Amino acid sequence: MTDAPRGTTAFFQVLTTGYTLSTGPGVAATVSYVADGDRKIIIDPGMVASQSRILDPLAALGVAPGDITDVVLSHHHPDNTINAGLFAQARMHDHHAIYQGDQWEDRPAEGYELTPSVKLIATPGHSPEDITVLVGTPDGVVAFVGDLWWRPNGPADDPVAPDRELLRENRERVLKVAGWLVPGHGPLFVPDGTTVI
Question: pTM for the full model?
Answer without folding.
Answer: 0.97
